[in-house]
Amino acid sequence: MSSDHIERPTPADAFVPGLLAGRVAFVAGGSSGINLAIAQRFAEKGARVMLMSRSAEKLDEATRSITEAGGVADFAAGDVRDPAAVAAALAACRERFGTIDIVLSGAAGNFLAPASELSPNGFRTVIEIDLIGTFNVLRHAHEHLRTPGASIISITAPQAVKPMVEQVHAGAAKAGVNMLTKVLAAEWGQHGVRVNAISPGFIAGTEGTHRLIDTAAKKESLLATIPLGRLGQLREIADVALFLASDHSSYVTGSIFECDGGLLVG
Fold first, then answer.
1. What is the pTM of this model?
2. Which residues partner with 257 through β-bridges?
3. E strands, 38-132, where?
4. Crossing angle, helix 133-141 and helix 83-97, to 10 degrees?
5. Which of 34, 173, 192, 238: disulfide with 130, CB 3.0–4.6 Å?
6. How far apart are CA 239 and CA 203, in angstroms?
């Protein structure tokens, strides 16, 4: 199967201008990749966006990519593994832009490692970033949310439900994110807070996909397992997030949105 036998152009914009006008979005892990693409899409539709990740330099560049496109954004550097840093970043967001309507938690770490060679520290690091980091963001965001109507979105992965070799650490962490999503949806629904997650498949141009598919042979083998026969695009994930952040999904909570080209059914 050719790696480029099916390519999809950038999808047409099906969302109205100003869809998120007047709303405030906090994006953890927002300096690159899928999270930045989502933040840019939120800003494009009128949201004021606060980005958080560890590197102030990368955050400054990411913020400029939004403001130069006409959006409104700022950043607060911090590590999602540090509850105090998360709390400070959320407080900065509220002080800068007002009450928060949308929270996206997508900070993640991953690498290929057979379980027999994975160090306890390597396993712990991925759990701390992906799972504990997500908990820290959601837990500390709750007090800042504009309710009812607030939307929380986490980024999970197919490894949460599909066993993948050399991914025991990521699989365990993302399985936790899936359950965290469902439990918080059950607990916070009474306050009008919606909690969902997106499970992106292999997305072109992201560091995660580059690390996991590091040869042409691996890419060809992977595409053979994806019913749509191609990698996903950043914009396709961002549009799912935009739907979940908007009133179009006002009766959706506790859901894991698989945006993977059919990977889990292939």
1. 0.94
2. 198
3. 48-53, 72-77, 102-105
4. 40
5. 173
6. 14
